[in-house]
């Protein structure tokens, strides 16, 4: 019996030594060979005109991203708006921490914008994962940095960012790593796999002026003590943006928020914020642009104005308005005590405002062909990316046909049109499939199917090491 223990114990020690040697090497290098080894489709830039910069090649190695390691990739945009990024990621073990992606002008500078994902996300082999954040202005031809960091993880339980071991893979940028929480950075080999996207709004149908009141006679004080609102009745099905005539008086630091509501005490249907630095000291029309929303023509809605701080004497915003009832379809309202109690203002006046909109007459465009893994293992989860543009800018949801039978197997939630979205799926049976996707806007209009992506699903590989360990465990139990 002792001989049996020695025999099985020796085998187990050899296996563990081999595994620990590989782990120690990967810790020292800060990188690891990803479980790639299979084909993955890549996006076709001709199908996605809002792609700006990209590096799609990988040698199947990936840099660790965990609480010990931060990774950055520099890039040079050619467009003046940055909307989102996609990264080719993998994961090892069971990472359970927040993964953060930000954009910076300097590696040790502040975040211009940031987005984060909470696990579980991605596939343990590899997935293109999209990080969506509010559009930001960038300077074409200037260098920026995509910075990845995490709140936890170890080399055994972490995410990895695939890269190409070739400095010419993306000639305009470099990869950097930091082992001290971003305080110092060192250049690393190759270039990470990434895609950056510009805004789609300039590709959409033009909106039109809908409701307005332009007469100016006085100004209403906007400060943190109370809110204001202007009711209006749209004639278009989609509301795209609002213009407000406003000026700043004295020194007030609060941002100005303009939101749209169906009732004064209801939730915001959408909103936009302007920092105090963008509000001039003389009256001007300021645009508040937000994601397009559906409204009911002929029904009453409210433009709600709010801020923080200031006072009602020297430091406030002045909302320009008329003297008298110059917009018969609506009224001015005041929200006392930070908008908790509303009443119609007397004597009657109307704020200076302009709403823009359009009617929903077209279905979404044909979605781009999905891209993601083309060789998969049954029982494991894989991610696929697509997007579609709605001509009126309506949010869209996506219907996936995972088995190629021409029917929608799964509808997603609604997303801002034109934004890349990732959807994950697990196949239970091996075989060859043609996956396709269609888009649907909020009025129910559907696009045609995308071009199909052929994939092959195989039975999961047999894990020899786990099999040997299980035999050892069974053997030990037998001799006890």
Q: Sketch the major β-sheet.
A: 8 strands, antiparallel
Q: Please work out how many helical segments DSSP would assign.
A: 3
Q: Examine the coordinates and then state which fold CATH places here, giving the name of the CATH topology of the largest domain.
A: Jelly Rolls
Average per-residue pLDDT, rounded, comes to 84
CATH class of the largest domain: Mainly Beta
Helix content: 10-25%
Q: Which structural category fits the helices and strands?
A: mainly beta
Give unreliable regions as ranges: 1-28, 33-39
- The coarse overall form would be globular
| Record field, number of beta strands | 33
How would you describe what is shown here?
With 480 residues, the protein is mostly beta strands. The protein folds into three domains: 25-199, Jelly Rolls; 206-358, Sandwich (Jelly Rolls); 367-480, Immunoglobulins (Immunoglobulin-like, Sandwich). The protein has three helices and 33 strands. Strands 1, 2, 3, 5, 8, 10, 13 and 14 form an eight-stranded antiparallel β-sheet that branches. The relative contact order is 0.14.
List its traits.
Jelly Rolls; eight-stranded antiparallel sheet; 3 domains; six-stranded antiparallel sheet; 480 residues; mainly beta; Immunoglobulin-like
List the helices and strands and how they pair.
Layout lengths: L1 H28 L1 E3 L17 E5 L5 E5 L4 E6 L5 E12 L6 E6 L6 E7 L9 E11 L6 E7 L7 E7 L10 E4 L7 E3 L2 E2 L1 E4 L10 E6 L4 E5 L4 E6 L5 E12 L6 E6 L6 E7 L9 E11 L6 E6 L9 E6 L10 E4 H4 L1 E4 L8 E6 L16 E3 L3 E6 L9 E6 L8 E2 L9 E6 L4 E11 L11 E6 L5 H16 L1
Parallel strand pairs: 27-33
Antiparallel strand pairs: 1-3, 2-14, 3-10, 4-9, 4-11, 5-8, 5-10, 5-14, 6-7, 6-9, 10-13, 11-12, 15-26, 16-23, 17-22, 17-24, 18-21, 18-23, 18-26, 19-20, 19-22, 24-25, 28-31, 29-30, 29-32, 32-33
Helix pairs in contact: 1-3
